[in-house]
Amino acid sequence: MLNPYSEDALIEQATEDALKELGWTVVTAWINETFGDAGLLGRDNKSEVILTRELHAAIQKLNPGLPLEAYQDAVDQLVQKKSSLSLGKINKEKYELLRNGVPVVYNNDLGETVKEKLKVFDFNQIHENRFLAVRQLEVVGELYSRRPDVVGFVNGIPLVFFELKAHAKDLRNAFEDNLKDYKDTIPELFHCNAFIILSNGTDARVGTVTSAYKYFLEWKRIEEEEEGVVSLDTMIKGTCAPERLMDIFENFLLFDDSYGDTVKLMAKNHQYIGVNKVLQNVKDIKDLNGKLGVFWHTQGSGKSYSMVFLCEKIHRKMGGSYTFLIVADRAELENQLYDTFSGVGVVNKKEVRAGAKSGITGREHLRELLAENHRYVFTLIHKFSIDPEKESVYPKITDRSNIIVISDEAHRTQGGTYARNMRYHGLPNASFLGFTGTPIIKEEEEITKNIFGEYVSVYDFKRAIEDEATLPLRYINKGEELKIENPELDEQMAEVLEDENLDDDQKAKLTYLFQRNYPILTAESRLDAIAKDLVWHFNERGYQGKAMFVALDKPTAVRMYNLVMKYWPVYLQELAGRISKSEDQQESMELQRKYERVKETEVCVVVSSEQNEVDKFAKLGLEIEPHRRKMVERNLEKEFKDAENPFRLAIVCAMWITGFDAQCVSTVYLDKPIKGHTLMQTIARANRVYDDEKENGLIVDYGNVYKQLEKAYSVYGEGVKDTSNTENKKLVEELVQLAEEVEKAIEETEIFLREKDFELKILLRQYLCIKLQ
């Protein structure tokens, strides 16, 4: 047994104390355990991971009056081992039984065959469940025996696994050295697991059976308003208090099968809190006159999954009669939302997307879907349009009051004609909830409150970085560095340029606004200088993640591609020269690997199509057809999101800068007038957590967007707090200043080493040897 005064034992004791305070019963099994039905845990032997004595009692209590064979059948299904499947798939199968009930078939007193699902947990009367934590439970696997620190059982089911380390030990060791071993040697203990907690007493993180270490996250706060603190105590209170544990288990776990093997997802701390705040508003839906509020959670914090958690919890806890209408204003956003819902199995019919039915228009299909009774409907806001040849006013589709409209990026289109058609004519009794990754700016506040009400949950950019839900952003002003001529950003121009498909009126307006600045921004010499710098910078970056270049418009995107392709072989030639001149074999090998990577890298243009585009581009001396062929014949989005795919640099102008998540993107190059929430969403393409080497996102600015960036952050960075003192609280750190500090530090280090007669090259060679190993 552990020395009761060792650090490990003290952490276990702290865990026991915290659990007892929450109402758990805690026992220590090691040495104390006796076996048999009257034993400490009722186990017959050490290979049992489900406490069948507890499970039998719970099932009979929650499903009274059934024959014993029905109870035994349910227990047998839960205990059954399936070694042929992956741990994720087994966990999913067991989870569905535990949450939805175990299907059994039995004969009643009249000899009739009865099919029924037996409850394992009482999700409504939490005190009807038994919460038992076992310290030092010895489990014998097929080849090895192991003794986990603490396992939390609910009604005999091992739902919570604790791996605890001493204060001085890095938490990663708990994952790499212990948890991985447990999953290999006693995998049955994780078949029914809800989540796993890793802690060394000070640091604490929670994840699932399929989570890589980078996806084990902190649980810092119980209420949204709290500053938050990382501690084992907060973690246990936040996830293991009986009410929260059963809520998380029932409503905040998802399984995604869309990428091959099953991936289990658990709500993050801010998602759990935010969704439950919305639930309170839904309970008061009549008093709020259908205004359910605005859910502002910053980009990269999992808004799409928050929608899933919310909708599914409402269906389970408030009846399944609700229809959720998911409304977006851009096709890529609609695609992302549908892919999220379908990936976790919540929807499986493409027909619930307005426009997916052949033979009728998207406008007609939307009306047909809303006149029926679907759990989910997905649409673009533009499909709430009228047929001008047949009608002058949008018709009423339904009087139903159990429709909840979830508007993604609520602030952009909710005051327009299509939104008014939806709210006042088509769905007059629906309720509305706004989801956004950026806050509502002052100009939009009044109309937004009239439609949605007040903020219901806020998780801003700054807090997301502090919580490590997203990465910090770093900034380089290349416009100044290259002495590129950049006119002052025209805000009207930026607003028009948000849409890459301009109608004639917009084009006329843009021509007027842009008549002086467009020739400057598209001058061949300027674009040539940017392209050359882009090629060198992209290939010489420290962290070689994927990147996006945001061009002014579609013709400029194609021109940039041509210029980049002009300089790509020049860079390769220079790299080949460095290889041939290298006098160090290890350095030469490193450079050769770099050469091969650059040589295989693909650059693609990704822009939306338009009528007569071949002729339009030809008149400008450009070819769009080769790029369009790639976009049509290949799945460029899937390729770009694949970290191993050689498509590594995307040149875009409006597509993919919002509603597009590729975690392997680390750099965004900006050369387009852009502002406000569109700017914040664009730079957030680079802030997704990805792997241990990706420490930040990098913004490279060729168009002097920095003033707009600071302005946007003063509004968007720190929630609804007073932002009058945010002038010096910058979202991004200028890398120019950091580079100067690093250069100075290097110079001082070299001087110091020379004084000590130490040869720096020896150290670099040693480093290269280590990397090669």
Provide key terms for this protein.
773 residues, alpha/beta, seven-stranded parallel β-sheet, 29 helices, 43% helix, 16% strand, globular, disordered C terminus
Write a short abstract of this structure:
The protein is of the alpha/beta class and 773 residues long.
Describe this structure in words.
The chain is of the alpha/beta class and 773 residues long. The chain has 29 helices and 25 strands. The strands form 6 sheets. Strands 21-22-20-23-24-19-25 form a 7-stranded parallel β-sheet. Strands 1-4-7-8-9-10 form a 6-stranded mixed β-sheet. A 6-stranded parallel β-sheet has the order 15-14-16-17-13-18, with helices on both faces. β7 (150-154) and β8 (157-164) form a beta hairpin. The two termini are 40 Å apart.
Indicate the topology.
Layout: H1 7-21, E1 25-28, H2 52-62, H3 68-79, H4 87-100, E2 102-107, E3 113-118, E4 131-135, E5 139-140, E6 145-146, E7 150-154, E8 157-164, H5 171-185, E9 195-199, E10 204-207, H6 232-240, H7 242-251, E11 253-256, E12 263-266, H8 269-283, E13 291-297, H9 303-317, E14 323-328, H10 331-343, H11 362-371, E15 376-380, E16 403-408, H12 410-413, H13 417-426, E17 431-436, H14 442-452, E18 455-459, H15 461-466, E19 473-477, H16 478-481, H17 491-497, H18 504-514, H19 517-521, H20 524-540, E20 546-550, H21 554-581, H22 585-600, E21 602-606, H23 613-619, H24 625-633, H25 636-641, E22 647-652, E23 665-670, H26 676-683, E24 697-701, H27 706-716, E25 732-734, H28 735-755, H29 760-772
Parallel strand pairs: 1-4, 8-9, 13-17, 13-18, 14-15, 14-16, 16-17, 19-24, 19-25, 20-22, 20-23, 21-22, 23-24
Antiparallel strand pairs: 2-3, 4-7, 5-6, 7-8, 9-10, 11-12
Helix pairs in contact: 1-6, 2-3, 6-7, 8-9, 17-18, 20-21, 21-22, 26-27
